[in-house]
Amino acid sequence: MPLDQQKALLFGSAAAVRLLLFTAFPSLPNRLAGRVEVSTPVTSFKRLQEGLFLYTHNVSPYDGGVYHQAPLLLPLFSLLPNPSYYPFATSVLFTMVDLLSALALAQIAESGQSVVTRLFKSSRKDLRWSSVAIAAGFLFNPFTVATCIARSTSALTNLFILTAMAKASQGASFTFVLALSFASYLAMHPLLLFPPLLVLLYDARASKTKSAPSPFLFSVVHTLGLAAAVCALLFVSALLTGSWDFLAATYGVRLLLPDLTPNVGLWWYFFTEMFDSFREFFLGVFWLHVASYMPGLTIRLRKQPLFVATTLTGIFAIFTPYPSIADATLYLSLVPLFRHLFPLMRYTFLASASILYASFLGPAFYHLWIYAGSGNANFFYAITLVWSLGLSIIVGDSLYAALRDELDVERPELRGEEVKRI
Amino acid sequence: MLSFLHFLLLIALVACASASSDYHERLLLRPLPQSTLLASFNFRSMESSVAFAQQNFRYFPRSFGQILQHAHTKELHVRFSVGRWDADNWGQRPWHGAREGGTGVELWAWIEAQSEEEAFSRWLTLVNSLSGLFCASLNFIDATKTIRPVMSFVPEGDHANSTSLHLLHGTLPHEVVCTENLTPFLKLLPCKGKAGISSLLDGHKLFDASFQTMAIDVRPVCEGAGGSCVLEMEQTVDMVLDIARSKRPRDDPIPRARPIEEIECDTGKGYNSGDTCYPLDKHAEPAWNLTELFGRPLKGACPLTEETGDDANTLCINTPPERTIQVNTTGKYAETRSASDTLRCYKLPIGAEFDLVLPEQQMTTGLVRAEPQLYAARSINGHGQERGSVQAVIKNPSETDAVEFVYLESLPWFMKPYLHTLRARVDTSSENPVRETYYRPAVDRRRGTHLELRMVIPAGSTLTLTYDFEKAILRYTEYPPDANRGFDVAPAVIRLLAPYQSVDKKGIYLRTTSLLLPLPTPDFSMPYNVIILTSTVMALGFGNIFNLLVRRFVGVDEVPALGAGGLKGVIMGKIERLKAKLGRA
To answer: How far does the CA of residue A60 sit from the closest CA of chain B (Å)?
Structure first.
């Protein structure tokens, strides 16, 4: 079957599955939107609806404790018919978002940046999955489907992150800056992806043209471009809402964690149980911890910027304040790009077992705590620990595999030998 | 010198004489169905505005007046309530609900201030001072429990410059109203519970009542335009006593089965025999007297009340004319009857005890129950500690009139309503009953939700109002000691706008009961464990990744050659390097 036909079949079936779920189970979207694993206070569709309601009734949605999402989502969703009565348009929109994300993912896979970069050529470069297979891995991942059906706005963030990666690996500066600024505008932490993706963009551009552009000038221009794009988005938002209140209600909430609604991450229970006098200190430490991975990974894996960006999405899925399975699905769909590292990974069984364990027991333990009353908060907390541990094993193990793969290129004589870290 | 003293004495006498009309008190007793009795105490004292401004207090309590002056409060309403008014059985509320409060403590005031911030700081001064005065936790009324209603309350008094007045409203639904609140309440009265109808108020009986509400209302009243103004302070106690329960002796309060010989049995029952008995339901009005019911005798009239005229009749009872009432006193009293003999009023003797004795009596005329203008009930639907929905059912019993009303909700911040899910339905029409909405959403830990709806309910219809809400999880230090009991949500306040109008400016109100909201709770014993476990998972991730990043790979067989690995290797390497350096030097 030709590639285009395969793609058409894949996208068609993925869209059909989503629309079928939307229409055949009309209560499913709201049920999933109420799950804490899928919807967080900063991505929940129900809160978006509340924000829209307040926005269309001339009450500032940011003068309240419910809506914490970006202002530009309001005019976008106010164009659509009210999803409580006419849910079809919203369903189509979220299906489209997923398909576009898959398209971007396929573009990343086709660029081959995961195995062969300007400075590095993996010795296992032929061990790859096709772009269709990788897109299928994204589209039919149950976590992706659940995110789409729950209409969580993190689907939009994922779309912009994937587009930014795709455009960076293709060397398209303008669209890359635009996509990344949208992603950062929506969720703030994707800003940390800028350095590795800038390296990726530089490599893609340098390998295209004969003479590599000046690295200093290149990074200055793009940094200014990103700053200008983000500032423009913020300025438009301020014009739209009439004040700068949205900054505190969106980014302030992500930074300071006033809403302790449970999620799959590590922050909520920690800060529920934290002593008041240490709250600010640990907020600072936790954010510093999230940010600390970016420079280390970018410097050490300078030759594989796409891998750095992928690993960072994994870090976001574990260590950001409001993670959901949408963040995990982004990381888990990017990992298959590095099929060539799989033989080098050591704890695949442990990692996949703990992810599966957490996915099945998480909802059950949450039910025991909140509804049945036969468990307490520690049940769900323990599962979030397992989930985070499972994801961090994948992150660490794939990082080990990537470094081992680099070693095989540097010192081919050590291939297949036992190695030790010193 | 002597003449001057005489002059002073004369002034004092004149003041006394003129002041005697500035204090009124009245107790109205009204039997309700199911052997209950409504007792409405009302105490009213006046002070001219000029005297008040000069801190010249006569009947107005000095401690209270100074608080009002200090907080620039022009009009004040305080309510302490326990229990629920059973509108289905008891009918219309006393004073049309205008002297009633929601469960716990409710407080609202018009405060004079130039800005909202100033008004709020004066409000905090007010609640903190009143907290000390009434021994109630009023100081817990902070920004999260304060709202500024826009439609539900209007000033009862006459205010000259209403533009600089700010209305603030706070509730404490969790507050347990008890004897320690009654004592300061009685101290504000001129007779301080020693004489007059206030001598009947006893904490044991008042707080044992099925429903009781204590109210204090301060408002300025002006006579015409530019006329002299007086500051009126009204203290009200309404209580519904279960007669059988109140008659229990204090030294043996536990209800016990009486010996079978003392019970009148229903011999019509098939199982009736010497040792089985079904008590006979006699449908008779029970016997009671004041001393037995209130636990203490009525010690005559308060000497400060008027001695002649209608205001001298301080004790009234509203019963059918056929009910036998015996007066038991040694002093001089007078009885007057009015409203075709359904209202009997008594002028109490001064300095002598007074008692009303009502024997058990088979009545031929039933009690008249005034139909309430609206019935309201509110509840939480759904299960689980994550989310739920509130449902308020409001019924209009009138067959002819549509009723317009304002519905006010003041919700705590940790109960997050979704206004887009608000639905109001009327069972008889498909028209949306909501005419106007005022909504101020909550901000976490800073203010609560304030929702006001102006709605119209057609004749003979039932209105159902629902909205979804989500429950927030709090920091573990924000939970009270009894965290699993749940949190109280203040009652909704309903104010009727049309077509019913009260004769004075008090308005017609009704309140729903408060709600109990269970929140998800963390494990309170776990702070150290959580900090340790979470930190461990983070350290595992961080350690694993940075360990990989900062080290380099070598073949296993190269390790001993390099002498690396472990502390020994590092030290050896350092020594080697030092040796090399020294050798070169």
So the answer is: 9
B169: left (phi over 0), alpha (psi -120 to 50) or beta: beta
Q: Please, what is the angle between helix A173-187 and helix A194-208, to 10°?
A: 170
Token pair of B386 as six digits: 């994550």
The reply to whether residue A407 touches residue B553, judged by beta carbons under 8 angstroms, is yes
Nearest CA in chain A to B539: A289
Domains of chain A, by residue range, sit at 3-414
Residue with tokens 């709770």: B521
The answer to whether the beta carbons of residues B183 and B136 sit under 8 Å apart is no
Same structural domain for residues B191 and B297?
yes
Chain B residues inside the 8 Å CB shell of A261: 470, 472-473
Same domain, B314 and B423: no
Contacting residues of B for A368, CB less than 8 Å apart: none
B379 and B446 share one domain: yes
Contact B444 A65 (CB under 8 A): yes
Per CB-CB distance under 8 Å, the chain B contacts of A371 are: 383-386
| Domain-located, residue B310 | yes
Residue B94 backbone dihedrals phi, psi, to 5 degrees: -65, 145
Element (H, E) at B528: helix B527-550
| CA distance, residue B98 to nearest chain A CA (Å) | 32
Strands B23-32 and B313-318: parallel
Per-residue pLDDT of chain B (585 residues; tens, 9 = 90+): 334 434 333 333 333 334 445 888 999 999 988 889 999 999 999 888 888 888 888 888 999 999 999 999 999 999 999 999 999 989 899 988 999 998 999 999 999 999 999 999 999 999 999 999 999 999 999 999 999 999 999 998 888 877 899 999 999 999 988 889 999 999 999 888 888 899 999 888 888 899 999 999 999 988 776 678 889 999 999 999 998 888 887 777 777 777 777 778 888 888 888 788 887 776 788 889 899 889 888 888 888 887 777 778 889 999 888 888 898 888 888 888 887 778 899 988 888 889 999 988 888 887 778 889 999 999 999 988 899 999 999 999 999 989 999 999 999 999 999 999 999 999 998 899 999 999 999 999 999 999 999 999 999 999 999 999 999 999 999 999 889 999 999 999 999 998 887 777 888 999 999 999 999 999 999 899 999 999 999 999 999 999 999 988 887 777 766 555 567 777 877 888 888 878 765
Domain final residue, candidates B459, B483, B517:
B517
> Which residue is listed with tokens 């430490």?
A285
User: What global pTM score does this model have?
Assistant: 0.89
Q: Which of A52, A65, A273 sits opposite B527 (nearest CB)?
A: A273
